């Protein structure tokens, strides 16, 4: 009388949610790395590559 609900959409939504959480975690990690650089201003290294001879 009752039909069993398909588990395919539920599994698909679970996979999408899991991958979305991974993507969000990557974005947050990169933002946390970038925030100190933005707050303290960016100062390139004086030992970096230079096109002009000093």
How would you characterize this protein structure?
This protein is mostly helical. Helix content is 59%, strand content 0%. It has one helix and no strands. The protein has one helix at 8-39. The mean pLDDT is 82.
Summarize this structure briefly.
The chain contains one helix and no strands. The chain is mainly α. The mean pLDDT is 82.
Shape: rod-shaped
The proportion of residues in beta strands is: under 5%
Order of helices and strands: H
Radius of gyration: 24 Å
Mean pLDDT: 82
| CA(first)-CA(last) distance | 86 Å
Give structural attributes.
54 residues, mainly alpha, 1 helix, rod-shaped
Please describe the topology of this protein.
Layout (H helix, E strand, L loop, with lengths): L7 H32 L15
């Amino acid at each position: 009388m009752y039909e069993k609900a398909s588990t395919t959409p539920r599994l698909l939504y679970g996979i999408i949610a899991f991958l979305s959480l991974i993507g969000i975690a990557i974005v947050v990690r990169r933002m946390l790395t970038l925030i100190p650089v933005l707050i303290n201003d960016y100062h390139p290294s004086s030992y970096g590559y230079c096109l002009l001879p000093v």
